[in-house]
Amino acid sequence: MTTKGPSRKQVIIPMVKDNIDKFMKNSSIHVTNLNRNLRNAMSEVLVDFICSDPLGITVVTNKVLLNSNLLIIEKYVKNLENIDSTQVKSPQLLQSKSYLKIIGIPYYPHGSCNSQERLSSNDIEAIIKKNQIFDNITLASKPRVIKVSPKSDMVIVWINIWDVQSGAKAKGLINRCFNVGRFIATVRMANANPGIPQCKNCWKWGHSIFSCRIQGSKCIKCNEPHKSENHCEFGWCCKANNKINPPRLETKKGEPCPHTFKCTNCRGKHQADSITCPFWKNCFNREWHQKKYSEICENRAKSIHLAGNENTKQ
Prior knowledge:
six-stranded antiparallel beta sheet; Alpha-Beta Plaits; three-stranded antiparallel beta sheet
């Protein structure tokens, strides 16, 4: 199935996560520099803002981009010193999204149920990248790997791809087969299922960043009120503390946080967007999310009630 996607007033630039993180740290500077380059080329197109997702960055503009604008943006991004240009794909103007599923792939890549290695989204991306039938195909989101049934050793892989409104790219893939090890996988058409959105501002599920009600941002790692990229500077776990035993050393500038993260949703020891989080695993199960958040609200209300009773007794 093909649905209408984003307007042509934006360009998608696929790149690896390391490039995304480095680019987004100075996104406001990049907006200014890109607009300077576009004005120097006598272009009426200007960049409004830049945002990111797991597969790349999106440059949103005030007008529909021309090929000449795309070349200016591509040249700027690939010439940045801290960006690996070999891991940056050409900018793409796409209007629609097509939904597909791949069947016939084993859940255990090495064929043994005792193996600790299970098929992941990263494995699927690697398979797609190596196979020639997916040439010139760009994923619109991370692949979703779901077992056919709880006791099955096979999976269905759901993929969303950027396409044109006619769905030409999807039509070129439907019913085509390719090898995954000794297995033969087949691409089929699928219905649209956008799933439950996760806000990239507060990292809660059920709404997007554009409808988030909190002021400021929450950290994806520790859930404190600062941007995720500033975690090592503002996060309590990265600050020195000589009063505890053993004393905690300050995280050196430029080094990643070595401490255990805390998920804002399940309270687990991982980032809020981790694929190991039960909320992520159930991102297409709206009933599960509603039930889980109802339980969280009930537990919070009980805690407040108990705290109030204790204060009254005192």
